[in-house]
Inverse folding.
């Protein structure tokens, strides 16, 4: 796990966008695993401003609330479309969806089959949950946990409640830890003092199911891109 420090959220957005453009220049039809949430939004806005060829880029959805269809304001698919795919001209036929509506087993299986058929994930763009989750891989999550439906922890429900006026659903589907760890590169974006405590724990932890992001220590090319506020005193510990 490589830690890269940047000054602030604006610098984080620039650095993250640079990593995405690098991945696309290396492979024009790169498959991006794309988080929603607050943290990657600056990166996505910066990508929309950059001149690079996104005409073949493919995107896989990281997670979705069970039963929440795309017309619902809480739809993470809808959020990903608006923030990343539409500005870059990535149409539905280049998006791998994690469906909220089909039954759990077939939705998760179809997603994993589609990711495998696409050749796997080139770059996973992730945020860090206040409880150490990646996607909705909530603690505890085993290193080889597949794409599946999970019950959200109280921490995630509370944290994600700030995105919407509506109640946060209690169940969600998430790309598995297996799939995240198989990505050729992972970039974990962490911004703000709100994340300082959990980031310090992730950086210091031995890999453990109780801190899902700690599995990234086992990844051969995981970059933690964190701003000064998120690092707090972590760089001095
Ligand atoms: P955030 O969410 O980017 O909005 O902080 C991260 C997460 O909970 O996974």
């Amino acid at each position: 796990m490589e830690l890269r420090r940047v000054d602030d959220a604006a610098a984080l957005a620039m650095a993250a966008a640079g990593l995405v453009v690098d991945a696309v220049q290396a492979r024009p039809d790169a498959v991006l695993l794309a988080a929603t949430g607050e943290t990657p939004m600056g990166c996505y806005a910066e990508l929309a401003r950059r001149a690079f060829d996104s005409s073949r880029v493919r995107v896989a959805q990281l997670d979705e609330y069970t039963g929440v269809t795309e017309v619902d304001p809480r739809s993470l698919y809808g959020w990903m479309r608006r923030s990343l795919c539409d500005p870059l001209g990535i149409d539905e036929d280049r998006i791998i969806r994690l469906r909220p509506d089909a039954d759990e087993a077939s939705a998760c299986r179809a997603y994993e089959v589609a990711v495998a058929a696409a050749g796997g994930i080139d770059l996973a763009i992730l945020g860090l949950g206040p409880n150490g989750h990646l996607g909705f891989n909530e603690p505890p999550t085993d290193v080889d946990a597949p794409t599946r439906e999970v019950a959200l922890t109280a921490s995630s429900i509370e944290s994600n409640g700030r995105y919407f006026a509506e109640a946060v659903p209690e169940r969600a589907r998430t790309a598995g830890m297996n799939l995240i760890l198989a990505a050729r590169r992972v970039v974990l974006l962490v911004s703000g003092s709100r994340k300082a405590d959990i980031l310090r724990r992730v950086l210091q932890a031995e890999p453990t199911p109780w801190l899902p992001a700690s599995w990234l220590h086992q990844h051969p090319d995981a970059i933690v891109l964190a701003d000064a506020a998120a690092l707090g005193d972590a760089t001095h510990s």
Notes: The first strand starts at residue 2 and ends at 6. The chain is about 35% helix and 20% strand. The beta strands are 2-6, 31-34, 58-61, 63-65, 95-96, 123-127, 148-151, 171-174, 185-190, 222-227. The chain has one domain: 2-236.
